[in-house]
Structures are given as C-alpha cells and as structure tokens.
Amino acid sequence: FAIYDRGKLTSVKSGFFQDTKGSTYHVPIFLDSQGDSNYHLYVKFPEERQFIFSGIARYLSLSILFILTIIGVFAATLIQLKKQKQISAIKTDFINNMTHEFKTPIATINLALDSIKNPKVLNDHDKVLNYVKLIRQENKRMHAQVETVLRISKLENNQLKIDKEVIDLHDIIADAVSHVQLLVENRQGALKVALEAPQSEVHGNAFHLTNVFVNILDNAIKYSPEVLDITIKTENTADAILVQISDKGTGMNKQALKHIFEDFYREESGNVHNVKGHGLGLSYVKKIVELHHGKIIADSEKGKGSTFTVKLEVV
After folding, report:
1. E-state strands within 89-228
2. How far apart are CA 172 and CA 53, in angstroms?
3. Where do the CATH 3.30.565.10 domains begin and end in the chain?
4. CB 114 within 8 A of CB 134
C-alpha cells in the first residue's frame, strides 16, 4: 500500500509497493467539506487471484460438499423409490400367481364334493373313490405350494435343517424323472436320460436334491409350449459330477438370465399366467445346491431353449 499526495508518492508506504496498472486500486482519503481530497490510498494485491480464492475457498468447498450431499440424497431416494416400486410389483405378481395356483385345486375340490353329493354318484363306490383320490391329489398340490414358500422362508432365515448322507445321484435323478414322466407322456414329449458318470455318489439330502431336479424339469416342461424335448445327462470332472438338463423351449434373453435365481423373479410376458408358478422354484434350487457346496449355471438363448448345469462334489 501507499499514500499519494497530489499524485506523488509519500513516505507512507509498504516496503515493496509498486504501482502496477490493472492490479492497483486507489480511493481518496481525508476528504474536505467539499468532498475533495489531495490524498489517495493505493492498495496493490501481488497475487490477486490467489488472495480472492483463499478468501472464498472454505465457503466454496462447503457449498460444493453441500450440493454433492443433496445430489447423493436425491439419487439414494430415487434408487429406494425404484426398489420399492419393484418390490411392490413383485409382491403383486406373487399374490396373483399364488391366487391362481390355489384357485384351480380349490375349484376342482368343490366340483368333486358337489359330485359326491349326487345320489347317483354316492351309490357308485368306484366313482366316489375316484373323486376322493382327486381331492387328495389337489390337496397335496396346495400343500406342496405352501411347503415351497415355507422352505424358502426357512432358507432365508438359515432355519432349514438339511441332514446329509452318502447317496447315488443317479437314483435321485431317476426319482425326479418319475415325478414328471406322466406330464411328459401327456404332452407326447421326449425325455432322454443318459446317466454316464462313472462316479455318482455324493454327500447330500435325497429329499431336497430330488426337489432340485424336479423343479428344473418342471420348468423345462412349462417353458416348452410346442416341442417338448428334454435331455438329462451326467459326466464326471476331476472331483465332481455334472448334471446337465437341456430343453428346446422358449429360452430366455440375457437380461432374464441375470435374475432367474432371484426370489419371486419371473420373466415378463404379455400374460402373467401364461406359465403357472410363483418365481420361487429356481431360487430354492440355487440355495439348496449351494447348501450342498455345489454350483448351478444356466445357459439360454431366446427361442432355442435352456440348459441348467448342476455341479456337486463326489464322495
């Protein structure tokens, strides 16, 4: 800084003051009654930009942090809203499908009971037994749906107890095939089985592993609306057995393939009831396979079919 008297530099100045145009500012001081003054105070900022920036840097940093925080909160809110919307859609889809799954057996049971009330049927022992058998089958079907949901719930809470023993996986596959054989025959389809793995004994739970293969086979049947052609084959790797189940059904796109093992996930279609189910089958399958320290891989192409490969360690 410096004090100028009538445009001349006085002795009142800082040691390194130099009047440089563009970076020196001046104002009049010691004004008289007329508002005039012979003295001017000159101030120079040697590093003007740095000086100004250092003055506002703290506030600028806080402002940027505040803006980023607002953006982060806004983004998190949008993500949560999207997730809530997806959960709501999944919940609605699940309720619709479960309602559909229960509606058919309940209607069948009601029809069977109404038929049994008919005096003509009531006097026919064979017909009564057929209707009773039908009621029992539909009751088992509803029970199976409830058990599936309960098993998934227990798996999520780590409450499902799985007792393991040495079992022959070829026997498990044969049992699973017997569960769906009638469905395949009714569709006039083909189910080819090639159990070629020399080592097929694993340490596992027969009940749950049977359910694993029944679920995969059931999906293969459901998603083969035209040509029903399923192939099951086994082979050994160094210390494991691979079970491949292939079909020539509708297949899946890459987006659906990423989510098929998620709870309640079902590939979107024009009609949610085109294929019966509630989106728990493959989720249950993956969890059971992992509880057996195994892996399951899905490969699919839209319009060409799907292949599920289950890998389990042999004994």
Report:
1. 165-168, 190-195, 201-204
2. 75
3. 165-313
4. no
Cβ–Cβ under 8 Å, residues 315 and 202: yes
Q: What is the per-residue pLDDT across 129-149, written as a single tens digit (0 to 9) for each?
A: 988 888 888 788 788 778 777
Give the pLDDT confidence score for residue 38 in this predicted structure: 85
Amino acid at site 240: A
Greatest Cα pair distance, the chain, in angstroms, is 132
Fold of the 90-156 domain: Helix Hairpins (1.10.287)
Report residue 220: phi and psi, to 5°: -60, -40
Main-chain phi, psi angles of 100, to 5 degrees: -65, -40
How does residue 307 score in pLDDT terms, banded at 50, 70 and 90?
very high
Structural contact between residues 65 and 239, judged by C-beta atoms closer than 8 angstroms? no
φ, ψ dihedrals at 295, nearest 5°: -135, 150
Which run of H or of E encompasses 244? strand 240-247
Which tokens belong to 20? Answer: 């440089």
Provide the pLDDT for residue 271.
44
Q: Are 220 and 230 in contact (CB under 8 A)?
A: yes
The total number of residues written for the chain in this structure: 315
Name the residue among 262, 232, 258 with its Cα closest to residue 247: 232
DSSP 179: H
Count of H helices and E strands in the chain? 7, 11
The 8-class DSSP code of residue 195 comes to E
Calculate mean pLDDT across residues 146-171.
80
pLDDT per position as a tens digit, 209-268: 998 998 899 889 888 888 899 999 999 998 999 999 999 999 988 888 888 888 767 665
pLDDT by residue (tens digit) across 285-296?
898 899 899 999
What class, spelled out in words, does domain 165-313 have in CATH?
Answer: alpha beta
- The Cα 279–Cα 293 span in angstroms is 23
The Cα–Cα gap between 97 and 277 comes to 6
Residue 16 in tokens: 């390194």
